[in-house]
Hints:
Shape: globular
Number of strands: 15
Strand content: over 45%
Strand order of the largest sheet: 7-8-9-10-11-13-14-15
CATH architecture of the largest domain: Roll
Amino acid sequence: MTLPFWKLSGAGNDFVLALRKDLTSRPEPALARRLCPRRGGVGADGLLVLDLAARPPRLDHFNPDGSKAFCGNGTRCALAWLHAAKAAGRAPALSTAAGLVEGEVVRWDRRRGRGTLRVGMPEARLLRSGLRLRALGRLFQGELFDTGVPHLVVRADPGSLLRFGPALRRHPALGPAGANVDFIRLARGSVSLRTYERGVEGETLACGTGAVAAALAAKRASPVRVFTRGGAVLRVFFTQAGAGWKVSLEGPAEIVFKGEVAL
């Protein structure tokens, strides 16, 4: 049996999108573990499963290890797919693990299958500040945010992420499940970001929920431009909302190709 799929990219964060109606009895976590590996699979940072029969359409995101989590870039990519497939207008919406997410198509090149979208993100919260964590003999100070998934944000040399990220991601102070780890560097009006993602267990070229956490940790006025590892720029818009922030994320999304894979 073959499964039709679409390869999508959001600022370099890449995904395999499949429609729920096309899935076999294989559980989605197992399918993510089959399709996401760079060798032996299609290759992606996550699997997006889209149910068009639901109202609004339902999106579930699975990490390469099969774990389920909200994904900002993946959600923006799925909204772009909906728009390109003419399954939604310029203000598409999705039901996700983090609740209802609404998007806006800022611009779209239908011929090339790419454009810019803005998506409403889950309300962000600061969970812990002033964290002091030791990893591989070095002391790090950071803040822990919930931006749909937990993110530890540290002001450190982004080039050292791959050395210290795996240890910090599983630090006992972050709980049994750990957290994503963001190393940021501040510049005037912008933030440079590199993210070690939980569930991917490696660095990705961009992370939407990480961009939100980085922008909030930077303590700059909205919007904040976040430069990703892959070179793309994400813009984070936010306003205070009680003890948290109402957030939207703007950035590129692209339909790279359509294919079929044998299962």
